[in-house]
Write a structure and sequence with these properties.
Layout (H helix, E strand, L loop, with lengths): L2 E11 L9 E6 L4 E8 L2 H16 L7 H25 L9 E10 L2 E7 L3 E6 L2 E4 L6 H7 L5 H6 L19 E6 L5 E5 L1 H4 L4 H8 L4 H12 L8 E11 L1
Antiparallel strand pairs: 1-10, 2-3, 3-4, 4-5, 5-8, 6-7, 6-9, 9-10
Helix pairs in contact: 1-2, 6-7
């Protein structure tokens, strides 16, 4: 029987403009779980929200099949959403009442994987020398494009383009999207915050993922992103499969 093992690397950078890093990362290749969370609501609130997501995901049991583990992730994020939206907001210690974060997570179990997300942090798959965006942004810009009200170029310039329509902690009820897929030899995944993918072309991201190791891919991604303005925090996890008989 063929099994899939994983190599991964994670990196975050404050960028060139922000004074604080509100992103948080999870990289657990031994358990087939990775995540990127991009906090919002000011530096204290955003950093707290993203850290809570990552810490709670890291504490989940790792036994059971894909569906059981996926359900645990769902429930974990629902619980964090409730905590951020109710308990922390009511404590009165924060100047800004918004305490939230995007999240994108990848779960791999056997020869299957699932991507789960809320917000505009993304999951990409490089397969057979092509790059695919698996996640779909929960943003005003994406909504306008879906409704054919704006072209992608127009949406990118819209003043509300970066506004989110979903995030953990943003509303009482959290809706998560999930995409399941069968794994193939040589698959490589990229989880990243919007600060990273807005700094790079699709071709540049695909080329970086073609490098021999996750560390090399990350080095290329960040080197290119930091050549630009890097106005936001930059965060990414690169995951590559190894096939072993």
């Amino acid at each position: 029987m063929t099994t899939v093992s994983w190599r991964s690397a994670a990196r975050t950078d404050i960028g060139k403009v922000r004074q604080n890093n509100e992103d948080a990362l999870l990289s657990m290749p031994e358990h087939g779980l990775w995540a990127v969370a991009d906090g919002m609501g000011g530096h204290q609130n955003g950093a707290l929200a993203s850290r809570l997501i990552v810490e709670n995901l890291a504490a989940l049991p790792t036994d059971g099949g894909l569906e059981m583990r996926l359900q645990r992730i769902r429930q974990c994020l629902y619980d964090v959403n409730l905590h951020l939206g109710r308990d922390l907001t009511l404590c009165g210690d924060f100047e800004n009442p918004i305490i939230g974060s995007t999240v994108v997570a990848l779960l791999a179990e056997g020869n299957q994987a699932a991507c789960i997300w809320a917000g505009d942090s993304r999951c990409y798959l490089r397969r057979n020398q092509r790059l695919y965006q698996l996640s779909r942004d929960h943003s005003v810009a994406q909504q306008m494009m879906d409704q054919h009200r704006l072209t992608p170029a127009q949406a990118a310039q819209h003043p509300s383009a970066h506004a989110l329509t979903r995030a953990v902690g943003a509303t009482d009820t959290l809706t998560l999207d999930v995409l399941r897929l069968n794994l193939q030899p040589g698959d490589a995944f990229l989880l990243c915050s919007d600060g990273l993918y807005r700094s790079l072309s699709t071709d540049a991201m695909g080329a970086a993922l073609s490098h021999g190791s996750p560390d090399q891919a990350l080095e290329q991604l960040f080197q290119l992103a930091l050549l630009g303005p890097a106005r936001d925090n930059l965060s990414a996890v690169v995951i590559q499969s190894d096939e072993n008989s």
